[in-house]
Amino acid sequence: MSMFGLHYKLERTTIGFALAVIVAASIGGFVEIAPLFTIDETVEKAPDMRVYTPLEIAGRNIYIREGCYACHSQMIRTLRDEVDRYGPYSLAVESQYDHPMLWGSKRTGPDLARLGGKYSDEWHVAHLINPRNVVSVSKMPPYGWLARTTLRIDDLGEHLETLRRVGVPYTDEMIAHASADAYGQARPDSTYAEAVRTRYGEATQIRSFDGRSNEPTEMAALVAYLQILGRLTDVATKSAAQAGE
To answer: Hey, what's the torsion of the CAs at 157, 59, 113, 135, to 10 degrees?
Structure first.
């Protein structure tokens, strides 16, 4: 019996058709669920992985608020041309503290998974104020008001507390000092700056991301977030280097 003949026969038999649907759905469900039972073996280990700082979390929230994820993905696929252009392909462990995930599937602009450190803070500020000033063919809208908008930091402790509930290992101390740490990271000459490095590690970037010396702006937070993309851990770089040996 041909495949079409079997299909026509099933359509005429209610019980048979229902059973066929159940079997097909079960197979699809098993294929999707089975990998979860081996997740400890399939997800890479990253002992050097650090959490986002409060300032970077604030920047990530702005990134989501402004819909940046709609035009920029944060997932480099294993295709050769993507690896050549953007760097080592993305690993699952690199997104373990991302809630929600921002992998994306559409690229009106380039992938940003490894954007951190690729350009200077000044470049990012100029790009966000008027994208055409640095990329003449850019279709991205300007975000100049971010440089004129003072960043709200008084509620960042609540953001960290919420993230801890879904598995991000923020400590009580990090949550309690979230607002001060956001200020200190963007103002290196303040009395709060050194405590940020103590809580989040020596590699934490502490500087005036927007080039200003007054209250941190939304621009400073967004640039801080962009500059950490792909730099929370170097496990992907190490894996790529080992694969090339």
So the answer is: 180
Nearest of 88, 63, 64 to residue 78 by alpha carbon:
88
Give CA–CA dist 230/126, Å, rounded. 22
Q: What would the two tokens of residue 119 be? A: 């350009």
Is the model's pLDDT at 236 over the cut of 90?
Answer: no
pTM of the model: 0.84
3-state SS string over the chain? CCHHHHHHHHHCCHHHHHHHHHHHHHHHHHHHHHHHHHHHHHCCCCCCCCCCCHHHHHHHHHHHHCCHHHCCCCCCCCCHHHHHHHCCCCCHHHHCCCCCCCCCCCCCCCCCCCCCCCCCHHHHHHHHHCHHHCCCCCCCCCCHHHHHCECCCCCHHHHHHHHHHCCCCCCHHHHHCHHHHHHHHHCCCCCCHHHHHHHHCCCCCCCCCCCCCCCCEHHHHHHHHHCCCCCCCCHHHHHHHHHCC
Residue 58 CA to residue 41 CA, distance in Å, equals: 33
Residue matched to tokens 């469900």: 29
Q: Please report the sign of the dihedral spanned by the C-alpha atoms of residue 70, residue 72, residue 74, residue 77.
A: positive
Within a 13 Å sphere around the CA of 170, how many CA atoms are in the beta-carbon half?
Answer: 24
Measured distance CA(170)–CA(110) in Å, rounded: 31
What's the CA gap between 22 and 26, in Å, rounded?
6
AA letter at 97: Y
pLDDT tens digits along 45-90: 878 899 999 999 999 999 999 999 999 999 999 999 999 999 999 9
